[in-house]
Design brief:
CATH architecture: Orthogonal Bundle
Structural class: mainly alpha
Mean pLDDT: 80
Largest sheet: none
Radius of gyration: 19 Å
Shape: globular
Number of strands: 0
Order of helices and strands: HHHHHHHHH
CATH superfamily: Flavocytochrome C3, Chain A
Helix content: 40-55%
Strand content: under 5%
Distance between the termini: 48 Å
Number of domains: 1
Length: about 200
């Protein structure tokens, strides 16, 4: 009987892994590592201000911006709940960032910060890499900031420390941000469709 215990544990683990992404299960955050089809976009994103958002919370980083926001530039904000909401992916959500010890892969503003928890729609991406429709993707929990300003405004709002009140460069206009990113998103779609 003891010999069957490890097999039972393995089977049980497989069952829960398979059923966590099944219909009816709430989508959860899984991190950028599952976005393998978009390698060049991930590489570019990780070098961006959004990709480095968590790093900016560390002592000595973005000193001028912190001073303007009346923050101590030498303080460590990497555990500050108010900051983590927008400087990590899925903070305190299902499968989202908890802390650096347990979920370091979700530090920073990752793919799922803008596209939603990916446990379900990533499966669909794998099954239908060149024929996936936006409607199917949305049905499995994907978000589109280009259609819903609330995706961006969840962080780019008056609750943020970095608003135009402290520096005009922090003014956020959703439509203007979309125009700025339009060519980038067109390239992503082109690369993804023709990669296969």
């Amino acid at each position: 009987m003891k010999n069957l215990r490890p097999l039972f544990v393995i089977l049980l683990s497989c069952y829960f892994s398979l059923h966590s992404g099944q219909p009816g299960a709430e989508p959860k955050y899984v991190g950028n590592q599952g976005c393998g089809c978009h390698k060049s976009q991930i590489k570019s994103w990780t070098r961006s201000a959004h990709g480095k958002a968590f790093e900016s919370l560390k002592p000595g980083k973005r000193k001028t911006a912190k001073k303007r926001a009346n923050l101590d530039p030498d303080k460590d904000y990497t555990r500050d709940k108010k900051c983590l909401k927008c400087h990590t992916t899925g903070y305190r959500e299902n499968g989202g960032f908890r802390d650096m010890a347990s979920t370091p892969e979700l530090k920073g503003v990752g793919c799922e910060s803008c596209h939603g928890p990916g446990s379900k729609y990533r499966i669909l991406h794998d099954e239908k890499p060149s024929s996936l429709t936006r409607e199917e993707n949305k049905a499995d929990g994907a978000w589109y900031g280009s259609e819903d300003p609330d995706v961006c405004l969840a962080c780019h709002n008056d609750d943020s420390m970095m608003t135009e009140k402290i520096d005009p460069k922090y003014k956020f206009d959703w439509k203007q941000a979309l125009e700025k990113r339009k060519s980038y998103h067109t390239k992503i779609t082109y690369d993804f469709k023709f990669k296969y």
